[in-house]
Amino acid sequence: MMSPAHYLFLSLALFLIGCVGVVTRRNVIVVLMSIELILNAVNINLVLFSRIFGDAAGQVFALFIIADAAAEAAVGLGIIIAFFRNRETVLADEMDLLKW
Amino acid sequence: MLDSVLFYFFAGVAVISAALMVTRRNAIHSAVFLITTLLATAGIFLQLRAEFLFIAQIIIYVGGIMVLFIFVIMLVRLDVALHHIRFRMKNLVVTLVIAVLGAEAGAIIYYARKLPGQGLFIEKMAPAQNLAPNSEKLAQSLFSNYLLPFEIASVLLLVAMVGAVVMAKNKKGTEDS
Amino acid sequence: MNPTLHAVLDFLQTWWAELTCGVVIVAVVPLVAGYLVLMERKLMADMQARLGPMRVGPHGLLQPIADAVKLLIKEDIIPGESDKLIFWLAPVISMTAALTSMGAIAFGPSFQVARDINIGILFVLGVSSLGFLGIILGGWASNSHYSIIGALRSTAQLVSYETAGGLAIISGLLLSGTLSISGIVTAQQTQRVWFIFLAPVGFFIYLVASIAETNRAPFDLPEAESELVAGYMTEYSGFRWALYFLGEYANMIVVGSVATTLFLGGWLRPFPNVRWLNWLDVLPALIIALIGVYSVYRAGKQPVKIQTQFMWGVALACFAVALIYAVPWFVGPLKFVIPGLNGAFWFLLKVAAYIYVFMWVRFTLPRYRFDQLMHLGWYILIPLAIVNVFAVGVAMLIAANTNWNHAVVLLLATIVTTIATLVCAVFLVSWHDRRTESASTASLARDSYAG
Amino acid sequence: MGNALQDDALQNNSTLLGTDELVLNMGPQHPSTHGVLRVKLKLDGERVRGTECVIGYLHRGVEKIAENRTYQQVAPYVDRMDYVAAVSNGLGYCEAVEKLLNVEAPPRARVIRVILTELQRIASHLVWLGTHALDIGALTPLFYCMREREEILKIFEKYCGARLTTHAFRIGGLQYESYDGFEKDVERFCLDFERRIQEYVDLLTGNSIWIGRTRNVGVLNAADCIALGASGPILRAAGVKWDLRKAQPYAAYDQYKFEIPVGTNGDTYDRYMVRIEEMRQSRLICLQAIEKIPEGAIMGKVGKVIKPPAGEVYHSIEAPKGILGYYIVSDASTQPYRVRIRPPSFINLQALDKMVRGHLVADVVAIIGTLDIVLGEVDR
């Protein structure tokens, strides 16, 4: 049996990698993907605690997070497509105008 | 034994492909490695006896969200962006900060494990039978205690759907230009 | 003893049955897929007034093996500008997804890899839908316009028809009350009826959606030969192409199995609860033996000696299988395998019938255009599926709270669903027609990705 | 630094980016361009914004070759233009030269010419129907069509020994007398054929997918047809009742009763219906013709060496694909001074761009199919 700490370390590692991706990548789509990775890391924790306490609540919240991730991806990608139509770029540091 | 083999396998795959995802130039490669990470995480879920989440992860994340990502990457044809510099050097500082924070959190987890009776960590998990049959348990919880959040989540999805459609829709005027 | 070895032995002791099933699936399904191709070609030939493959082996029986050998030794071409890693990975994903999803399918009462997984049907659906990743990535990695259009089409098609198919499955799941595959079949046994009779609309929607999901005609747009050459497979050749092909046929088996499990009673023989029809249990052995007898009869008519010998081989194989089916009836301790063997026979027979419908449709109907495909999916199938789920739910509630007959209520619900949806469809179609008529011809073709 | 420059270049070049336009090269090696047609499609998503036909992959210079051959030697060459309707090509050429020579084929020859040409029309339409249905995704009609075409080709083979490029006619009449049982073969085929047509109609006409794929697809109205010079079933589907067999009767067509089917919308479905009906009418013509094949000679008064007087002639016939015209200039030698051919496919192909604009890629395939082009004829 693995100890809970193993799972926590895994979750931490994924979370950090996701954070690094968010702050370092220029490509907005990859930034969005990194955010998905972060959410995923959180999910591991929730499922782990649900397992520890033998209560389904953690899994319910993980499910909510998945739903949220889906919503976020849909809207985020919609914005990216709309942005790309106008500016023909998906690089984060070129998105520097509030209005065009 | 089997448990630990599976854990190390899934965890290794998840971490390595997550790292690859962040570092690949090609956005499609990134997406493929993210899919690998998500599948490995799904394996972790299965190991934690969360069968329903395992399959929800596969269906929603891999079959839905990632397909959407790949679709968009193909649509906006990112091969142009490939030639750009991958990282912004000025964010190296931020990365360092993240690394320090991560080390801290890791240390906390590591040492908290060694402190007896502090309550931060429970070494033993509840028996696996508590969560079986998984989908029924989950559904009961979802539709009794968490009914309102569930409804809110569905409204959120609806709003997101409408928003995405509005956002991505070609405006009539721009089509001809 | 060495602890590692001990652990391995322990592992094998616990999981031997699952491992065997898995190995059987991986070893047999490609062969079965090959013979499905032969079956398809023979059927097509029959419907088109010709003979089909006749050269390799008697009646072309060795054709799949010859094809496999040909594909294996063919030059493996990777386009120069392609993305090597993904080009290499994509067909593997396609094939793996199809084979993995078979893990949860119950081919017989005890023939199932993931036996006590209580999300069986979702597992099958979810994992088999991963095969589309292979298609999309393959289309992208080929770096060809035809491939990428094929891949984009398949993505849009996947999203539209998986929704309809999933909703159709819900009507079956509502009736069985479980997600576990063996649970679904058992529910059909205890309720004494196949769910196709209780939810015919659901079955019909699933049939259409599964044809679309497996990219078969008339929904084979991602690989429409006359438009996109071969769609996402255009740049593939040799064994990579064969992997795609195998994945596609394995997927057909998967969707056939899901439909069989949910709507056609899984491994149950017809009328499983009727006592005086128990003689049907002998039928599998008899049928296989009869095929053997027929092979002997055909063997005499083969023109070449080697073909006669091969036909004898086929006959002997049939007799051997028939013997396997027959022996447990006479050997007491082996009695327990009878349900398993018969279950597998009936299951595969039903799957074959389902796939036969696929092929029949393919040779009969022209291909939809992309916007028509989207129109059918979003305007007709998905509303129909939603109404159907609702009607089945309401009917089950009524049946549970009153003492009316379960089946009668469901039948009424079906009729209501059908009528309501037909009215909606007629309305929608006429509205659509009016709109297109008022529009000029130039703007006739609507935005195909608007769905 | 080279990279940065390249980046700028890439970014400024907006055609490389975005969802706006994609140029798709269809052919010359494409399963549904019916040979070696190459169409460059400008796509917006899957919608066609413009086309550019690239032809000439099958160019053999038939017209130029004709200037260096005697009149008889040219005849086999014209068979190779529209190779699915070789008999019609030969008929047009032979009649043009006969006009130049001012001789007429004897009545018997003319009737047999009508029979063979109408059989050829059926065969040509069958090839069209099969491939068109295959383009739209119906696999089975092709084999049914080929089965019936086989019967026709067998009749040709019995008649002149060749199946595809028959060279069935000679200048001045026929080379071969019809074989024993010719009438019987034709009659058997024609009587059987009505039932066969019904099979295609059962498979396609009422099929909602077929209707959806063809109705309102590639509409070409009468004015456009005339402006573009489109002829044959394409023109008739637009509602113009123009068939040279009636308008300027040649061979023996004035002796037979038949209808000219016309459509109303000029869309792909109408063209399909017109061609199906034309097959029925051709069958009726054949049945009428074999009733009474006049006895007599099969060759007119044409010498061994054909040396027409100096002058020029234009003769056109209604080939299966449309109006096939021959313009021949003679300088009173044994070889034509100039031969100019008006191939129906070549001229009908012009309509492609007008028909496909605004449609989807899938419709392009249907429209190329409905134009019924043969690249041998387009490229000559």
Q: What does the model show?
A:
The complex is a heterotetramer of chains A (100), B (177), C (451) and D (380). Chain A is 78% helix and 0% strand. Chain A has 100 residues and is mostly helical. Chain A is elongated. The termini of chain A are far apart. Chain C folds into 3 domains: 1-73, no CATH class; 74-268 and 360-443, no CATH class; 277-359, no CATH class. The model of chain C is unreliable at 438-451 (pLDDT under 50). Chain D has 380 residues and is of the alpha+beta class. Chain D has helices at 2-12, 62-66, 71-79, 86-101, 107-136, 140-160, 182-204, 208-214, 222-228, 233-237, 244-247, 268-291, 344-349, 351-356, 361-371, 375-379, and strands spanning 22-26, 38-44, 47-54, 169-170, 173-174, 311-319, 322-330, 336-342. In chain D, α3 packs antiparallel against α4, α4 (86-101) packs antiparallel against α5 (107-136) and α5 (107-136) runs antiparallel to α6. The longest helix of chain D is centred in the N-terminal third of the chain and has 30 residues, at 107-136. Chains A and B meet through α1, α2 and α3 of A and α1, α2, α3, α4 and α5 of B.
The total beta strand count of chain D reads 8
Give the strand order, joined by hyphens, for the main sheet of chain D. Answer: 1-2-3
Detail the poorly predicted runs of chain D.
Answer: 1-19
Radius of gyration of chain D: 23 Å
Order of helices and strands of chain C, N to C?
HHHHHHHHHHHHHHHH
Over the alpha carbons, how many angstroms does the gyration radius of chain C reach? 24 Å
Quick check: average pLDDT of chain C? Answer: 78
The largest sheet of chain D is: 3 strands, antiparallel
CATH architecture verdict of the largest domain in chain D: Orthogonal Bundle
Straight-line distance between termini of chain C: 63 Å
Top-tier CATH class of the largest domain in chain D? Mainly Alpha
